[in-house]
Write a structure and sequence with these properties.
alpha+beta; three-stranded antiparallel beta sheet; 12% strand; globular
Length: 386
């Protein structure tokens, strides 16, 4: 097993400016075989020590979707507090309009609701902040964004096409809060990570003055973007603008963790499949499996809240999954905008947690698109085809 090849690939990511800092954790046959930090948490800073280590905390961005919101929905399904084919209107009656009564929990999890991918809701919150200082990041701001999401017009018939949607998961986060009567972060800490003696996954507390992003303790946080409207380099506060406007707690983004913290959460899903986790094997299997349901658009790679390797992405195919060419079709995973990813190949008992801050100092850096498949190919070839 040539672990040095994996180290060399990660170091190449640094020298070619794919990311300023990263942690890679690889598990094979339920044993961590690689866990190492690379590069810097923050560049162009007066801090003396900014090296990434195993305690470095990353903004997970959209990994929040499977690790928090999807996990919560799966638990509520297990408790018979909702059904996958319940209409969203059952929980959010203000979500009404042409064909919107047909949108179900399944559609939102499967990214087949017909909702838009994204909207800059934060801009309206930002405008209100100028009129009412202190509005940004409050419960009122969060409710305002929910209201905007309720009013969205569908761009396609429910179940017709697959379109990845942040808005769908903003609404799923609201569903969890409505059913449980508590904020999403409270639910997460009480029912998802409570089994861990020491959790390395959490939603950071919003600073007293959300406009001053430099008043947060930045120790061990990997910095993200140098933001003009947020007046500096973001560190320890959610990068996603809509989640930030909502106070840092949302169904689509907001979770922070170390690589090991992510591994703990992924392991709960794998344990559940083996009837040793927080879900029944049947429900866990349903959520991590690519959907062949008639309500899932043909050719879509989405499971429920989780993704699977892109259809037709195997060896020799011009289409490349972010997991590379080798991961089995039964694999599941997810990506995060800040430069984070999870890929799990159950067939080969391989887990790859790759956390980086590729958006530091600018989101314009997209070199990770070509780097990530190469990294996963190398890991697979090193461990499985060795």
């Amino acid at each position: 097993m040539n672990i040095s090849a994996i180290t060399n690939q990660m170091e190449e990511g640094l020298t070619t400016s794919v990311f300023p800092g990263a942690v890679l954790l690889v598990s094979h046959q339920n044993k961590i075989v690689f866990h190492k930090g690379f590069g810097q948490r923050r560049i162009k800073t007066k801090e003396k020590q900014t090296s990434v280590d195993l305690q470095t905390i990353f903004d997970l961005a959209s990994l929040t979707k499977p690790l928090v919101t999807t996990a919560a929905i799966a638990q509520l399904l297990q408790q018979n507090r909702l059904c996958l084919h319940d209409p969203l209107q059952k929980f959010l009656p203000d979500f009404f309009g042409k064909e919107k009564s047909q949108v179900t929990i399944f559609h939102l999890l499967n990214h087949s609701s017909g909702l838009p991918a994204w909207q800059p809701y934060y801009q309206k919150v930002q405008a209100q902040e100028k009129k009412t200082p202190g509005f940004l990041g409050t419960l009122s701001a969060k409710q305002a964004i929910f209201k905007m999401a309720h009013a969205e017009t569908l761009k396609a018939h429910p179940g017709e096409i697959s379109r990845y949607s942040d808005i769908g998961f903003i609404l799923l986060g609201e569903v969890v809060e409505k059913i449980c009567g508590m904020p999403l972060n409270t639910y997460f800490s009480k029912y998802i990570v409570s089994a861990f003696k020491q959790s390395e996954s959490f939603f950071p507390q919003r600073p007293e003055n959300p406009q001053n992003i430099n008043n947060t303790d930045s120790r061990h946080f990997a910095a993200t973007e140098d933001s003009k409207w947020r007046k500096g380099v973001i560190s320890g506060i959610v990068h996603d603008d809509n989640a930030y406007a909502m106070g840092g707690i949302a169904g689509h983004a907001g979770l922070f963790a170390t690589a090991h913290g992510v591994y703990q959460l992924v392991q709960t899903w794998l344990d559940s499949i083996k009837d040793k986790g927080f879900l029944s094997p049947e429900i866990a299997e349903k959520f991590v499996s690519r959907q062949k349901d008639v309500m899932s658009p043909a050719g879509a790679s989405w499971a429920l809240g989780w993704d699977s390797p892109s259809v037709l992405s195997g060896r020799g195919s011009p289409k490349v999954s972010s997991s590379g060419h080798h991961f089995a079709p039964s694999s599941f995973g997810h990506l995060g905008f800040t430069g984070t990813s999870i890929w799990v190949d159950r067939t080969h008992e391989l887990v790859v947690i790759f956390l980086s801050n590729r958006v530091h100092p600018s989101r314009e850096n997209e070199r990770i698109r070509s780097f990530r498949p190469k990294l996963h190919n190398l890991i697979f070839e090193t461990l499985i085809h060795a």
